[in-house]
Design a protein that fits this description.
- The protein is built from 25 helices and 22 strands.
- A hairpin with a 2-residue loop joins strand 3 and strand 4.
- The longest helix is centred in the first third of the chain and has 28 residues, at 217-244.
- The chain starts with 13 loop residues before the first helix and ends with a helix.
Length: 721
């Protein structure tokens, strides 16, 4: 759990909230093996236990009599144990046979390989069983049913089944959870009463009771929605306060769009689309607002023209007489900016420069002198711009491309070089709206869904190893016509460790057999034999920046026909003559990466084709998670539609490799289904902070404590720690 930060109490009732932070060993029944088992499950405190919700529920509320239970259907039956016996038809097979009776008949129930049941279940016990009803040997029968022993005064209801580990049974987990719920009663509700009423939400104590011990599945869903809303609201507040904590007391820069912005619109060789125009208007409106620092996300699919939109922000900074910095995750992408954007900006009088790790020392020193003197309006660069010797006298705009590849700390280091600087972050990885709000809730968003110039497009085909010749034939045909091809591999060398290639299951983990992984080095040697008429070269992250730049330029100019690469070509490489891509071990990549990769072909007048060779592909495809992702890739080229599919196929924390992302530790929210909850919490967080920027009002103190408990280590300035 995040470290707690002291916060003033609003009343004596706040002390009840401290119960949630008590060590789990304080609870009745928790000691010895049970305590060890709880800690193995990650349960250290009472609050952790309350968030350890059941993984499923046994619903015994719709019981029927033995006589009326339809044969061949799943039914719930409540009866009294008349007889218990044990059979051993084979040495290792133990069958516990239980005869249940009610006023209408007899039900024969069989439990397999559970010999302790013959000692545990006694004549006269009242059981609720749930399973498929069959008929044989004159009796209605049920094999291996779910069951629950009922107390004499207890009716059949809904029984929670919590996740457990060795040392603690499901029954003991229920008892301990019940104790924890009793201790938490009376703790202040984090959500103010007016907000609960407006959103029609349960109280906190009622929702915790109902999520663990619901009286109906409908009540359970209402409880989950209440807890999901609270979880999302706390996340949204944490995200925005994390951002605001670095900006408290910092005046915004009021930018003034002028001649450079107008000149840029005239200088562009194309007209902006309606979506691009709308995004430009939103960005310039934010930049003009001197009372508020811009924090905006520009989200768009491959080829939607985000760079052109961002250029207007750069021109606006120049109009104001200040500086801008564009930070990209790779030297390739930073170089792409220098090649494509800088000439346009310099043509309208905006001075530009490029700084990467490959910049020679003499050139770097000269560049930093010009930058410190204010002679450079726009600096394009990589992580190299974060070093202390990179000094901006008038930095008023920070643009970060492929935002998810940078940490919050890196973003803040760059922003600190220009206090009050506006922030524009960009991502070419389409993200479902619910995930975008959860990850980037501290940012306003502009979305470009459609390409201004559609281009020829790309077709995707998933092949198995036996159909490799189809891809090779397409590559041979392309290079024969003067076009170019990519071959993408997951490894640089055969000896590399393949454990952390992508945030998707390793071979064998999702039911697919293990497959050999292709490497750039191995594939290069192989393709030189397969295509003796072609020039084949390698590109990967272990090459120096100078080597990478030279290789990409040779590929762009046509000196290289086939480029064998890792995912380093995922962004920033724009070669219109490249029309074919072959991706090896496609099952090892996430959908976002595959979509970005195939976006490298079909960018010009000629249509592109992306071939994905995957283990398990073929005429009789196995329905593994990997194959479902690849089938989705074949089905659509719309990145946003693909992102929605990916969210349904995978847990949200796996998308974009975010398992360890602090914002993604969500227990109650379903990002696919809870769109309304997430959007409501997002809007409410904005409204709350607009009236009370630090959550210090007495009515908001319990909510403030919740935010501090979870995110206190991120924004201590706001919480007063």
């Amino acid at each position: 759990m995040a470290p707690r930060i002291a916060a003033p109490a609003v009343s004596a009732r706040m002390s009840r909230a401290d119960v949630l932070h008590e060590d789990v060993s304080r609870l009745k029944y928790v000691s010895g093996a049970r305590e060890e088992a709880l800690r193995r499950l990650g349960i250290e405190s009472v609050g952790d236990l309350l968030c350890h919700i059941p993984r499923r529920y046994l619903d015994f509320t719709h019981a029927v009599t033995i006589e009326s239970a339809p044969i061949g259907s799943v039914s719930t039956i409540v009866g009294t144990v008349d007889r218990v016996s044990e059979k051993r038809p084979r040495p290792r097979l133990v069958i516990t046979e239980v005869f249940l009776v009610d006023e209408t008949g007899v039900l024969q129930v069989a439990f397999f390989k559970q010999p302790w049941l013959s000692r545990d279940i006694k004549r006269g016990d009242r059981l609720a069983v749930m399973g498929k009803v069959e008929f044989a040997c004159g009796f209605k029968q049920m094999s291996a049913p779910l069951f629950e022993r009922l107390d004499a005064n207890r009716a059949a209801g809904i029984v929670p089944v919590h996740p457990v580990s060795e040392g603690i049974s499901v029954a003991w987990m229920r008892r301990i959870a019940s104790v924890a719920i009793g201790l938490s009663l009376g703790a202040p509700d984090p959500l103010p009463a007016p907000l609960r009423a407006r959103r029609r939400l349960m109280s906190s104590s009622m929702s915790l009771r109902a999520i663990h011990f619901p009286t109906s599945m409908g009540e359970r869903e209402l409880a989950r929605r209440r807890l999901a809303y609270e979880e999302t609201l706390v996340l949204q507040l944490g995200l925005r306060l994390r951002n605001d904590s670095n900006l408290l007391g910092v005046p915004a820069v009021g930018h003034t769009p002028g001649g450079h912005v107008a000149a840029l619109r005239s200088a562009l060789p194309f007209r902006l689309s309606e979506e691009q125009d709308a995004a430009v208007a939103q960005i310039l409106r934010d930049m003009r607002d001197g009372g508020r620092i811009m924090n905006r996300l520009l989200l768009g699919d491959v080829g939607t023209g985000k760079t052109a939109v961002a250029s207007f922000a750069l021109a606006c900074a120049a109009d104001t007489g200040t500086q801008a910095c564009v930070m990209a995750p790779t030297g390739i992408l930073a170089q792409q900016y220098a090649v494509k954007v800088a000439p346009v900006l310099e043509g309208i009088g905006v001075s530009c420069a490029l700084l990467t790790g490959a910049t020679p020392a003499v050139e770097r020193a000269r560049l930093l002198e010009r930058l410190a003197a204010g002679d450079i309006d726009v600096l394009f660069g990589t992580h190299a711009v974060l070093t202390e010797d990179v000094v901006f006298p008038h930095l008023s705009l920070v643009v970060i491309d492929e935002q998810h590849r940078f940490g919050v700390g890196q973003r803040n280091v760059l922003r600190a070089k220009g206090p009050g600087a506006d922030l524009l972050v960009m991502s070419a990885t389409p993200i479902p709206r619910t995930l975008a709000l959860s990850l980037y809730g501290d940012l306003d968003s502009s979305v470009i869904r459609h390409r201004p110039v559609p281009g020829a497009g790309v077709t995707t085909r998933v092949l198995n190893e036996g159909n490799r010749d189809i891809a090779y034939g397409a590559i041979r045909e392309a290079i024969g016509a003067g076009q170019r091809a990519y071959v993408v591999c997951p490894l640089v060398a055969d000896r590399d460790d393949a454990e952390e290639l992508e945030d998707v299951p390793a071979p064998g983990q999702d039911g697919a057999p293990r497959a050999p992984l292709h490497s750039v080095e191995g594939e290069l040697a192989h393709l030189e034999i397969v295509f003796p008429e072609a020039c084949v070269a390698a590109l990967h992250g272990r090459m120096s920046a100078v080597e990478k730049d030279a290789t990409i330029e040779a590929f762009r100019q046509g000196a290289i026909d086939i480029l064998v690469s890792t995912t380093v070509v995922e962004v920033g490489v724009d070669v219109p003559e490249a029309t074919v891509m072959l991706i090896e071990n496609g099952e090892r990549f996430g959908l976002a990466t595959l979509h970005q990769l195939r976006g490298r072909v079909g960018r010009g007048a000629r249509a592109g084709t992306c071939y994905v060779i995957a283990q398990g592909a073929g005429r009789a495809r196995r329905k593994t998670p990997s194959m479902e992702r690849l089938e989705a890739l074949e089905a659509t080229s719309d990145g946003f539609e693909l992102a929605e599919m990916d969210l349904r196929l995978r847990h949200e924390g796996e998308i974009l490799g975010l398992r360890q992302h602090g914002a993604m530790s969500l227990r109650f929210v379903d990002l696919d289904a809870d769109t309304d909850i997430i959007e409501s919490a997002h809007d409410d967080a904005i409204e709350i902070l607009a009236h009370e920027a630090t959550l210090s009002a007495p009515a908001l103190m319990p909510l403030r404590h919740c935010v501090i408990d979870r995110y206190g280590d991120v924004f201590k300035e706001v919480s007063g720690g």
